[in-house]
Write a structure and sequence with these properties.
169 residues; alpha+beta; Rieske Iron-sulfur Protein; 4-stranded antiparallel sheet; 3-stranded antiparallel sheet; 30% strand; globular
């Protein structure tokens, strides 16, 4: 393995420069924000309580589920604040999750997540919550759009892949 020796002065100087760079709000935000596409998922008139709508977001390799819960939810949109969406990949090993009986259930190891509480894990091996899709509801048209992801999609180091192609609306 090739290792380069650096002096203490070089290390401290580089560290100070990095701290200065990251303490500038514009630079820090540029490093942590990602350009999410805006995607129309559904119209509120087509949703029924407890019936999931499958879609892909933020790209074609990222399955997700939109659900109208029938009860107010954290991060919920719509007139009742009860429409939420989540990545449908379990945070334990990436197995698919499905919506059943007011919860998301992992088909592989039976981790369970609460869609009304930010996708919080309440049973099983998963130690992280399901990534929640950030939604926007437009009252004038009734359209529901995905506009971002809160949390990291399983198996990724970034939610946005460099080659992501998804139609923007």
């Amino acid at each position: 393995m090739f290792m380069t020796k650096i002096s203490r002065r070089t290390f401290i100087g580089g560290s100070a420069a990095m701290v200065a760079l990251l303490s500038t709000p514009e630079w820090a935000m540029a490093l942590i924000t990602q350009p999410y596409p805006r995607l129309k998922i559904a119209n509120i008139k087509d949703l029924k309580v407890g019936e999931p709508v499958s879609f892909n977001y933020p790209d074609e390799q990222s399955p997700a589920i939109l659900i109208k819960l029938g009860e107010r939810a954290i991060g919920g949109v719509g007139p009742e604040g009860d429409i939420v969406a989540y990545s449908s990949l379990c945070t334990h090993k990436g197995c698919p999750v499905s919506y059943s009986k007011k919860r998301f259930v992992c088909a592989c190891h039976y981790s369970m997540f609460d869609p009304a509480k930010n996708g919080q894990t309440f049973q099983g091996h998963a130690s992280e919550w399901l990534p929640q899709i950030i939604l926007r509801f437009e009252p004038r048209t009734g359209n529901i759009y995905a506009e971002g992801v809160e949390g990291l999609i399983w198996g990724r180091i970034r939610n946005i892949l460099k080659s992501s192609k998804i139609s923007k609306l």
